[in-house]
Amino acid sequence: MNCGVLSSFGKKLIRRRDLDLSNEQSSFARCLTTLDLIALGVGSTLGAGVYVLAGEFAKEKAGPSIVLCFLAAALSSVLAGLCYAEFGARVPKTGSAYLYSYVTVGEIWAFTTGWNLILSYVLGTASVARAWSSNFDDIIGNHIKNFFIERVNIKVENVLAEYPDFFALLLVLLLTVLLAVGVSESALVNKVFTAVNLLVLAFVILSGFLKGDLKNWYLTLEDYNLTSNASGSVGEFGSGGFAPFGFSGVAAGAAACFYAFVGFDCIATTGEEAKNPQRSIPIGIIVSLLVCFVAYFGVSAALTLMMPYFLLNKDSPLPAAFGHVVWEPARYIVSVGSLCALSTSLLGSMFPMPRVIYAMAEDGLLFKFLASVNKRTKTPLIATIVSGIVSAIMAFLFELKVLVELMSIGTLLAYSLVAACVVILRYQPERPNCSFKTTEMVKLNKEDNEKTDTDLQVTMTKNDKFSIRNLVSQSSDVPTKTSGRIVYGCVSVISILFIFMCVILGQKLGDILTGSPIWITVLSLLSAASAAVTFIIWKQPESKTHLSFKVPALPMLPLFSVFVNLYFMVQFTAETWIRFAIWMVLGFIIYFSYGIWNSTEEKEQSSKEGNSPAIKDHSATVV
Fold this sequence. Notes:
By secondary structure, this protein is mainly α. It has helices spanning 2-14, 34-45, 48-62, 66-90, 96-104, 107-139, 143-151, 166-181, 183-211, 221-228, 246-257, 277-306, 317-324, 328-350, 352-362, 381-397, 400-426, 439-442, 446-463, 468-472, 481-513, 517-538, 556-569, 574-598, 600-622. It has two domains: 37-229 and 239-421, Amino acid/polyamine transporter I (Up-down Bundle), CATH 1.20.1740; 442-544 and 553-597, no CATH class. α3 (48-62) runs antiparallel to α11, α4 (66-90) packs antiparallel against α12 (277-306) and α6 packs antiparallel against α15 (352-362).
């Protein structure tokens, strides 16, 4: 009996949502073009990362090698972006990575992903709001900061900020009202600010290279002492040169710079508001990431060429850099441009958050009142207001660095799950009650469909028996239940192997580089096992479903994305992981006390189980 209860409970955790996309009706207004989505992705991504955090990371973590950090972070984001693009083409519905996980790997993983996305968007909004406030304050001479530090100092080390940021709070509330008014109005404001942002960044890159000095990439201790009037303390200087804090600094910087590329995933939440989501979402994601990479790489190079890395201003690096090269007019141009950029980034962080909350509430995993869509504005009004208030409170109280690190963990986990889901779903047979069909696909010739179904049924009958031979090679050209289970299990195994590898690389990289035979052997064995599992996945038959975009080089590219994301995750401090654990505990309390019992899938299952006895009883009465 207990085994039956546990089995039933376990099935609830991994039940998957079925979708029928042949019905394209939506509660939202379909008004966003491909250009709108590109502007949304670029605007939400080019914000605090390029105008604020680039200076902090260059000064404390990487020096001039910050350009390599952005390159590594961009690689991770592009890999994740390709995976998001495929799912955007496959499942053009509101919900982003949350919905992708629900369709592919089950309810508990879907809730985990959605809960982490909420964390990422809330903290992203709060961090950008504080960055906006800090940048504006720097322009007017830090009067706001000085006023509140003298009167209301609330600083708690590594938790609360020095002072409550009333300006950031009001800014978040103002944009919450804008988002509640309507999508088209928000998109117009976003396009205008994004255009200004790109023009300013182009100016920064060109003028930075003209005014910069290549010597700032090869500084020595003598340069440090002469420039900073230091008295021998070289903690902020490192060893000088291009990578003053070594490979570990570049790795830590890359993990931190990953935050700079967070934002493109907001495009994936527009599935029910884009005019042509299956085409616009993949194009929007790829183009916006390419634009952002060029901008980040160019700006970080210009910044470290204009000014020695150890003199960078962490709060407002670009205006300070132009002040350092005695170009005051440029300083103010950049300050105004940065406010436009941070405004679009803030809008981009706030835009997807209520849509993920709406999707989870509509599925019953969060409280149902959050799934309300306003009939006039066609927006998830209550979810927008609630998420805006929570973000405003976070911006009001918490320190920027704390928000950024905690947000990055949630985002990296969501990216990892999406990449794993791409591999799993591409090797699964089509479920008869789960249709990933658009209206065009539904119009296919009926005879061809019947022939395909017959061939699939015969193939599954021949190949659905598990054997060691099937594990390595399936003779079928189409996926079967067995091959699908093999891939599901292999992805689980390789994820565990990757976690061990990333922890070892994160903790023992120095020993490995110095030739430690023990850790080299362990790493080699884990690598060999990962390669073997990847080979098994590769030998399984792949789904032939036609999509407007597919991730290339399957399964290597998505699995490499999972590995890179996990490696970045192990770079964060224990304090950040503790805060993350607290957030997850809170989420699981909500899920196990409410979501698991009120989900749409649970109600449908209960309805089916409840109807069967009633039918039998009715039949007996008639007889």
